[in-house]
Amino acid sequence: QERLVESGGGLVQPGGSLTLSCTASGFSLKLYTIGWFRQAPGKEREGVSCITGSDTSTYYLDSVRGRFTISRDIAQNTAYLRMNSLEPEDTAVYYCAVDRAIVASYFCRGYEGVGGYWGQGTQVTVSS
After folding, report:
1. What is the rounded distance in angstroms from the CA atom of residue 46 to the CA atom of residue 36?
2. Rounded distance, CA 16 to CA 27, Å?
3. What single DSSP character describes residue 36?
4. pLDDT per residue as tens, the chain (128 positions)
5. What is the C-alpha separation between 11 and 52, in angstroms, rounded?
6. Could you say which DSSP state residue 44 is in?
7. Which residues does residue 5 pair with via DSSP β-bridges, in sequence order?
8. What is the distance between the alpha carbons of residues 88 and 46, in angstroms, rounded to a whole number?
9. Cβ distance 51 to 57 under 8 Å?
10. For the chain, what is the largest distance between any 2 Cα atoms, rounded to a whole number of angstroms?
């Protein structure tokens, strides 16, 4: 019954903004490291942004630094990814994921913790 559900994807023009949401059910996000990942057609999945369960550290992919912001609302059991100044290269399916006992930078680089969950993904398309 534990699951993550992403929402907020869609079609936007270059330079536009979009906010993705990730809501957890069946468990609490309190002690989990949270990550946003993306995969474009023909490309390998990459970690976009991650944050530790204690909010003590964050990680951003170099290509999104200064444009994207990760946040969490424990009371709402929801994580967010605010994306500004979107570029065509940001087009991908975006996934929310969580794991335990791992710091943000390592989770975004593909390392695994002691156990977590993945959402189903939401499509983001940046095109004029």
Report:
1. 9
2. 33
3. E
4. 899 999 999 999 999 999 999 999 999 998 899 999 999 999 999 999 999 987 679 999 999 999 999 999 999 999 999 999 999 999 999 999 999 989 999 999 999 888 889 999 999 999 99
5. 29
6. -
7. 23
8. 16
9. yes
10. 42
